Amino acid sequence: MYEGAVQELIDELGRLPGIGPKSAQRIAFHILEADGADMRRLATAITDVKERVKFCSICGNVSESETCSICRDPRRDPSAICVVEESKDVMAVERTRAYRGRYHVLGGAINPIGGVGPEQLRIRELLNRLSDDAVTEVIIATDPNLEGEATATYLGRMLSTLGIRVTRLASGLPVGGDLEYADEVTLGRAFEGRRNL
Amino acid sequence: MYEGAVQELIDELGRLPGIGPKSAQRIAFHILEADGADMRRLATAITDVKERVKFCSICGNVSESETCSICRDPRRDPSAICVVEESKDVMAVERTRAYRGRYHVLGGAINPIGGVGPEQLRIRELLNRLSDDAVTEVIIATDPNLEGEATATYLGRMLSTLGIRVTRLASGLPVGGDLEYADEVTLGRAFEGRRNL
């Protein structure tokens, strides 16, 4: 609809996740009217991230070095590994400040329909790390959905033979939530996992 | 939170309109995992739009040339000018295929609180175009909100002295909408503007 460069930008923006045609148009006009230096910084940030960011050779988290800042940090407890699906999940757990161990990023979850089996995930790398006898607990923190649960079950079975403690994050009512609005599955899990007060 | 380049990209994306921190993170990881050539195209589209796109010297619409494709088109009716706030509104009217005249983009609407008065808008340029006696009708298509209505009233008064027909787009019920869910002001306007069947 628009002439050349404006339409090209709208098209490129519209390919990003969660950006519909209206948002793409709004962002394109914002870029058109914004300060040139700011927009060159945005363009550079996009190309830079592809060039500078690698994945940690130990845990698979995003990193600008061979190993990520968490794996390099000697203050992190080497006896615990928290297994997550994506780098985003590492940040989510870090924000809780409740965990001081290390991580392992699988790069997804088992999803037979989507063509993701155990061999597409970084499970072999996890097993290699566990051969080091410093690790005493593996905390499985995959998403509480179908794929995440399948991955947790698979890992649980596989790791149970190694004599390492394997745990899964608790399912239950979200803090600050309302019991009335909880779905049946979550509420059922909250009952199963009830604790003595 | 993230190391260097990833966080820089999240910050830059988060400054775009309608992109919150969660979306910025999701888009940043998409960019990180996407094809390098696609992402270079996105970065180029952002810098290109700033370099290649100008504003039409006649109507103020976005254009890659001195004048836009609509102003250059000899098939467009030179007797009508449709006055809109933004280039986006030109495209919205074009999509209706109901109008074959020309446009004038004001670059905003009168908004005293936001510091936008008539002198910040392209009103002088509009008056210069009207001195050409080819124009017989000015259709004011500013947004149907407070600022748009104020701008329409201001332009209506100013142009009434020139002996040119000045019209305003009809307000009323959106087609396909539900009378029950229309707000009072829209429903009131629909009554005022009722027509014989």
UniProtKB/TrEMBL annotation, chains A, B:
Biological process (GO) annotations held by this record are: DNA recombination; DNA repair
Alphabetically sorted, this entry's keywords are:
DNA damage, DNA recombination, DNA repair, Metal-binding, Zinc, Zinc-finger
Under InterPro entries, the record lists:
DNA_Rcmb_RecR (IPR000093), Hlx-hairpin-Hlx_DNA-bd_motif (IPR003583), Rcmb_RecR (IPR023627), Rcmb_RecR_Znf (IPR015967), TOPRIM_dom (IPR006171), TOPRIM_RecR (IPR034137)
User: Could you confirm whether the keyword Zinc appears in this record?
Assistant: yes
* A Pfam family the protein falls into: Toprim_4
What this protein is called in its record is Recombination protein RecR
Q: Which residues belong to zinc fingers classed as C4-type?
A: 56-71
PANTHER family attached here? RECOMBINATION PROTEIN RECR
Looking at the record's lineage, which domain of life comes first?
Answer: Bacteria
| Key word Transcription regulation present | no
Q: Which NCBIfam families match?
A: recR
Report the source organism.
Tersicoccus phoenicis
The Toprim domain is annotated at 79-174
Q: Cite the GO molecular-function annotations of the record.
A: DNA binding; zinc ion binding
Q: What function does the entry list?
A: May play a role in DNA repair. It seems to be involved in an RecBC-independent recombinational process of DNA repair. It may act with RecF and RecO.
UniProt record similarity statement: Belongs to the RecR family.
